[in-house]
Amino acid sequence: MCFLAGFGSLMQDVLWCFSQVKGTIDTGVTEADIISTVEFNHTGELLATGDKGGRVVIFQREQESKNQPHRRGEYNVYSTFQSHEPEFDYLKSLEIEEKINKIRWLPQQNAAYFLLSTNDKTVKLWKVSERDKRPEGYNLKDEEGRLRDPSMITVLRVPVLRPMDLMVEATPRRVFANAHTYHINSISVNSDYETYMSADDLRINLWNFEITNQSFNIVDIKPANMEELTEVITAAEFHPHHCNTFVYSSSKGTIRLCDMRTAALCDRHAKFFEEPEDPSNRSFFSEIISSISDVKFSHSGRYIMTRDYLTVKVWDLNMENRPIETYQVHDYLRSKLCSLYENDCIFDKFECVWNGSDSVIMTGSYNNFFRMFDRNTKRDVTLEASRENSKPRAVLKPRKVCVGGKRRKDEISVDSLDFSKKILHTAWHPSENIIAVAATNNLYIFQDKVN
């Protein structure tokens, strides 16, 4: 984990970093160790990561120290558990990966925490709880847990609770399976906290948390003839405040806002967001790079943010014909699209996140770079998540990419970028300037500079 800093208005020139990295950065990294999703809970006290090995690792923020009351707590491992196992669909002769595609937290209602995790086919509801006492003095069992002979029991005892070392338990409370033909790409908890939706390439299903054996199909874009298929669903999310409203994005670069009050099946959208393509910019790769990889409502619910291959766009719910803001993430890659297509990097799915006040947005790039854009000042910064730049209490310096011509000392040439190092998954603390960045098998947590 690592920490972020110098965020005065975020776009100040330096960020602080405490480095505590999950995993190792050696060549022995296995595919299972690669982080596939990152998510803060609603208070920001917990941070969950999922990886390709089907594991969920939860980090907890330490309380402020009495000796150093101004120093904010670091995140340490709280619980680790195996969420999904590899499976095999014998009917379709298909292997189902254990990789965790998404994690979503539910608001905390009691001492326990609840989260949803999903792989390609199955969503699970997990309960994470603490236990620091154990019962002793059973009547029917001895102290080793063996059953006693009832005829030998002559005295009834009252069981008592004894203190024990704190133990964090993760138990699956619900398993939602057998509802998706295609791979699940999104899950989103509704604001009523009674339902959630799961989306795959062609369908979106609505679930009740109490019912595991059936779901309600609310979007179905599968054509009668699959040869006529022209687009797929890439991401979906519920509105943060209105339980009847949700959006989903497509591989054609469009966003549809749907209202569940209109009809049971939301095949007809309430609003359709699309930016007309500039004919002068059209190329062989236009359709591929226009595919939206992530869609997020702002915390206020007024805006939608989308990420395609080269840009992040902010849309106003009241204006469908074009975005109100467009930010170039790595425009210097336009000249590299051919080689990116050949090595399949052009199909990478980058995520994007808002900060707590919706004033700054963040998304990832290659070479372990991640980008931040201040919507108020229109300033942006490129930062690098790497162990070399993450010494304790070190300053994170902005990075710049040189496209051509003479390269300055602190710049990196676009030809030198490492496309195997990519920041696909990021998360932002709901109320503070703390971000989590997943770089392959390493988790970095950055926070504001602490004076």
UniProtKB/TrEMBL annotation:
Asked if the keyword DNA damage belongs to this entry, the reply reads no
Gene3D superfamilies of this UniProt entry? YVTN repeat-like/Quinoprotein amine dehydrogenase (2.130.10.10)
Q: Which GO terms describe its cellular component?
A: protein phosphatase type 2A complex
The UniProt entry, under SMART domains, shows:
WD40
* Keyword Chloroplast assigned: no
Alphabetized UniProt keyword annotations: Repeat, WD repeat
- Check the record and name the InterPro entries matching this protein: PP2A_PR55, PP2A_PR55_CS, WD40/YVTN_repeat-like_dom_sf, WD40_repeat_dom_sf, WD40_rpt
The molecular function terms of the Gene Ontology recorded here are:
protein phosphatase regulator activity
Family affiliation? Belongs to the phosphatase 2A regulatory subunit B family.
Q: Which PANTHER family match?
A: PROTEIN PHOSPHATASE PP2A REGULATORY SUBUNIT B
Q: What is this protein called?
A: Serine/threonine-protein phosphatase 2A 55 kDa regulatory subunit B
**Species name for this entry?**
Ficedula albicollis
